[in-house]
Specification:
single chain, 342 residues, alpha/beta, Rossmann fold, Dihydrodipicolinate Reductase, domain 2, 2 domains, 8-stranded mixed sheet, 12 helices, 15 strands, 24% strand
């Protein structure tokens, strides 16, 4: 099997740049890592993350872009810069894995999509829940019609952030809605498609006298019901209350928490493995007497980024078609901005 020669462009302060590089390192049979480069002011803002690069060589951006043997890049800068560097990579004919969701400029994102299409290269965005086993199964089940008519999708994704992170939300359109809401909007669109109307609601809690939009809520209106996404940066225990609920004609499915760390017993089964976790789901159906019955399951152990980066490798090698087309990614991005009130 031919290895994919890849380099990473940038680090981000509050997303998954270190974890993505660790995952590339984890699969030496798939990836030959050429090195990395730091852009913008990352040597200062992301100093604590540079350790992820270990002994791999630091390159310049020009060295990465102009080396034809480097066929793929992971673009992992802060969100606001993502489209800018992905555009450079696209213009140089690279396959691209990019942190979600892209920069804040719709016209720039549209140009990126046009360039990627023209180059015919893989464009893969790091929406991690696309590779969560129970979420993936739920979406596939919904598309098969197992739920019957789906009336609503409810999605929560909150956490408790330090003041510095909540100040940083001001760099993004609508703060938390852009930063975390993008994950949830992706799930709603995959299940329900395009909404007829979007009602964005973004607020600041004012905690610590910080005025950034650290609370987001958006209603997506459909002909047969309302779906919503909700996220907060000031919710104690918010990470453990992340959930996805599908309310259908034939059953209701709740996935909660979307991800959770391993118990001591589970960790002992995979010693030293990074980013390992599980998820849980509860399915409710009606029995012959019309009464609700529930079935609860816990997933097998999975590593958050493994399937994502393995899928990217398969796409680059032509073994797998990206199910998320450029047109879908543009539609998703446009919807995210609408949910942000842009």
């Amino acid at each position: 099997m031919k290895k994919i020669k890849i380099a990473q462009i940038g680090l981000n302060q509050y997303s998954h740049s270190g974890e993505i590089f660790d995952t590339l390192v984890k699969f030496p049979e798939l990836f030959e890592i050429a090195g990395y480069c730091l852009v913008e002011d990352e040597r200062e803002t992301c100093a604590h993350k540079i350790k992820h690069f270990g002994e791999y060589p630091e390159l310049t951006l020009e060295q990465i872009l102009n080396d034809p043997t480097i066929e793929a890049v992971a673009v992992e800068t802060d969100e606001i810069h993502l489209t800018k560097y992905a555009q450079m990579a696209a213009e140089h004919g690279k396959h691209i894995h990019m942190e979600k969701p892209g920069g804040a400029d719709l016209a720039a994102f549209e140009k990126l999509i046009e360039t990627v299409k023209a180059q015919g290269k893989v464009f893969h965005i790091g929406y991690m829940y696309r590779y969560n086993p129970f979420i993936r199964e739920a979406i596939e089940s919904a598309k098969r019609g197992d739920f019957g008519e789906i009336y609503s999708v409810e999605a929560h994704m909150s956490r408790y952030d330090k003041p510095q992170a909540r100040e940083w939300f001001n760099t993004l359109p609508a703060g938390m809605m852009f930063y975390l809401g993008c994950h949830l909007i992706d799930l709603v669109l995959q299940i329900k498609g395009a909404p007829e109307k979007i009602i964005p609601m973004t607020f600041s809690s004012g905690k610590d006298n910080i005025t950034s939009p650290d609370y987001g809520f958006a209603v997506l209106e459909y002909a047969n019901g309302l779906s919503f996404v909700r996220m907060s940066g000031v919710e104690i225990g918010g990470s453990s209350r992340r959930q996805l609920v599908l309310v259908g004609e034939k059953k209701t499915l709740e996935i909660q928490p979307l991800e959770q760390g391993l118990t001591q017993e589970e960790a002992a089964l995979v010693p030293g493995v990074k980013y390992a976790m599980t998820t849980e789901r509860t399915e409710r159906t009606l029995n012959e007497k019309g009464k609700s019955e529930k079935k609860h399951e816990k997933s097998a152990i999975f590593c958050r980024y493994d399937d994502m980066m393995q899928a990217f490798a398969a796409m680059v090698r032509g073994e797998k078609e990206n199910p998320y087309t450029c047109d879908y990614e543009l539609f998703l991005y446009q919807t995210i901005l609408k949910c942000c009130g842009v």
